[in-house]
Amino acid sequence: MTHRTPPSTLTGELRRLTGLELSRTARAGYCCLLLGAATMTAIVSALLLTEPALPRRTSVALAVMVVIGLSWVGFAGWVLARKRILLGKDRVVAGRLAVAFTSVFVLGSVAVGGITGAPSAFAAAALGLLMAGVAAWLLIRARRQFAQLSRRRLELERQLGLQGGA
Hints:
Blueprint: H1 8-21, H2 24-50, H3 56-81, H4 89-116, H5 119-165
Helix pairs in contact: 1-5, 2-3, 3-4, 4-5
């Protein structure tokens, strides 16, 4: 079996595909997400641990925010620790997290509004629905991009396999 060098157009396409995920801008964005989420989580955790007299629903809300913050820290760490191309998988995971967390926000706001009757809680729920809609749209878009990139990768791998084995 002899190995042939792929044509420059195929090589260029593979470089373009890999370059999208490994750009400095993307890495910087995930570093900012990691630092921002870690900072927010540390501040909220400190507040939760140092203020035992907070109302129960406030403590629950802060605990939920800590879990959400830890999830974003874990996600950003996962993306930054990967040594291979993600092909948009990171965007799908981020979209799922965003949909889940905005849904929790909406449900929490509706629950607070139902218990207290506060109009501001229902206004927050309406804003949360808007955010959940944007998150769902981004998730759908990320899934489509992931599927398209995966199909293209398979096509390029097939082309390289045919050339290498001929």
